[in-house]
UniProtKB/TrEMBL annotation, chain A:
The lineage of its organism: Bacteria, Bacillati, Actinomycetota, Actinomycetes, Micromonosporales. Keywords: Cell membrane, Membrane, Transmembrane, Transmembrane helix, Transport. Signal peptide: none annotated. It is a multi-pass membrane protein. Belongs to the binding-protein-dependent transport system permease family. CysTW subfamily. GO terms for biological process: transmembrane transport. This is Spermidine/putrescine transport system permease protein. The chain crosses the membrane at residues 28-50, 92-111, 123-142, 174-196, 217-239, 277-295. PANTHER family: INNER MEMBRANE ABC TRANSPORTER PERMEASE PROTEIN YDCU-RELATED, INNER MEMBRANE ABC TRANSPORTER PERMEASE PROTEIN YDCU-RELATED-RELATED. It is found in: Cell membrane.
TrEMBL record, chain B:
It catalyses: ATP + H2O + polyamine-[polyamine-binding protein]Side 1 = ADP + phosphate + polyamineSide 2 + [polyamine-binding protein]Side 1. Pfam families: ABC_tran, TOBE_2. Keywords: ATP-binding, Cell membrane, Membrane, Nucleotide-binding, Translocase, Transport. This is Spermidine/putrescine import ATP-binding protein PotA. It comes from Asanoa hainanensis. Its EC number is 7.6.2.11. Residues 9-237 form the ABC transporter domain. The complex is composed of two ATP-binding proteins (PotA), two transmembrane proteins (PotB and PotC) and a solute-binding protein (PotD). GO terms for cellular component: ATP-binding cassette (ABC) transporter complex. SMART domains: AAA. Part of the ABC transporter complex PotABCD involved in spermidine/putrescine import. Responsible for energy coupling to the transport system. Residues 365-385 are annotated as: Disordered. It comes from the Bacteria.
Amino acid sequence: MSLLTGVGARPVGAPGSDKAERRDRRRWLPYLLLLPGAAWLFLFFVVPTIQLGATSLYDPSGSVTAGYAMTWEFSNYPDAIAYAWPQILRSFSYAAIATVIGIVIGYPLAYAIAQKAGRWKNLLLVCVVAPMFTSFLVRTLAWKTILSDNGWLVGFLRDIGLLGDDGRLLATPAAVILGLTYNFLPFLVLPLYASLERLDYRLIEAAGDLYASPTRTFFKVTLPLSMPGLVAGTLLFFIPAVGDYINAALLGNTNTNMVGNVVNSAFLSRQEPPQGAALSFLLMAIILAIVFAYVRRSGTDEVV
Amino acid sequence: MTTPETGDLRITNVTKRFGEFTAVDDLTLTVPQGAFFALLGASGCGKTTTLRMVAGLEEPTTGEIRLGDRDITRLRPYQRPVNTVFQSYALFPHLDVFENVAFGLRRRKQREVKGQVDQMLDLVQLGGFGKRRPAELSGGQQQRVALARALINHPQVLLLDEPLGALDLKLRRQMQIELKRIQTEVGITFVHVTHDQEEAMTMADTVAVMNAGKIEQLGRPAEIYEYPATAFVANFLGQSNLLAGEAAGQQGSDVLVGAYEQRFAVPAARSRTQRGPVFLGVRPEKLALVAAGAAVPAGHQSVAGVVTDSSYVGVSTQYLVRTGWGTELAVFAPNGGDAAQLAVGSEVTAHWNPQHAFLLERAPGEGDQTTPLLDSPDTVVGVGS
């Protein structure tokens, strides 16, 4: 998998060298370089993950004040699914729809910047990244204002009849999906741009010369060659979108809650950490399964 | 091969401008069906642009391109019965050799792809390479895949854009022979763009020498070499000694020329102009040297000079001879085995048969044009054969 690249620490021993000490040092150097990152990951990823796994198996009848007993409560998982399956389904469907919209918007954008923008290339790239200069929360709040019932957008849509007189944008699934699409679009566009930028325009000319119409050329040459970027981009888009809860919280209503919102409330308001932990683990497992299936299918290992 | 109609490629008054720059300037050209046609010129002369316009990758600013009876000027590339072997080969890196070659067939929904591809891979001597990726092939093999990928479509015209440019000398020679063999075998019109004069001469039956967006001369390689039309051609195709003179009109079957207080005569049939400023041209291998004072063969014309440089290259000895007015002439003396080497500093007479000289127009004020730096031996071998 291209995203979780492990460091292949291959010790290089100088053949026939009698300086054993130096060779030793050279062999240990890669591990030494690995150490800070590994320590960081261990402290802030491995330990909490184990802790989270343990929490998901606690006796749910405990409380934050009284503490929880480890009872290997595997039934927490079916219980969590029974409690939150609508939100789980919603998370994946919202994220999937947002990803499709993201591709529809992002692919032409990345293609245009990479192949057609000429000297405007860098400026356009900055424009893609520019929203990241403000915080995620502020951006989403801005959308809340734009989509609000008294805002000019709703007013305009009502005037032209696209929206009924009491129709609204805020607190609808559409608003949540739009928010997800907007917030994660740069993560899709940038890897896609990187792979389209490398695309040799002469290959497109060659395809045209060999009787491929522009549409055929796209599906037979451009798309397969940009597949690594597309796979990386959709993963970077889809994974955080599934787990996101801010868009649902700010732009949606109680009927648009995603699994992230349930996890959030389990830990912070309903005081049911075992359920939140179980849902987190479930989410991780499902995402991993999807990612493996996806990467396998699109055969990126071969392309990358 | 697929279409019975005559498929001469006719380019008529085609001009291509990129902004201020005119790449191709009012070009008119006919390539007969089945010809091996070379467009020869230095980089930037417009030869590749011409090729790309035939392929449909550039659109002419003005003018018309016809293939047989069909106007293809504004057709999209994929609508033209024309295929290209690109300079970079442009093989699809995500497809194996088989699928690269099959690409055009599949786009046109042809049947029996496998048989055709295998046959074509055999023709370019790559049978059994079908499963390889382009990146796993050598330059020469990639070149042949590119050729097979274009040829398999039986285009009416095959365009070759410097297809051998990336290969080393030995492989290039081999591929020249190969290409010529395949062209004879399949009988498709080849239009070959190259800056390599030797490549153009050995492969093509017709060569067009291009310069600054125009064709300077068009003809069989030997015609162009023996009787160039302009000073540019005389120097681009092989080497020439061009002496600045003034032509004084025809007398009998000769044109009289005065240069550096000497009088020369050139057959009228080998004169591009009869009066005014001219270049008197003689190829280095058409010049012979004798010691000063020795007899010059009857009917030959001569200039006196001093040998300033001599280099023995095996098949010949290349001399530089400085004339009385300071110009250095190049002289290639064939190694027949009996001629003595002339030492640097020897006083000599360089002589030639007037039937081998030629007369070209010269812009007033232009001086002698020679090739004072003896060129690399491969140029010499090419022109000598």
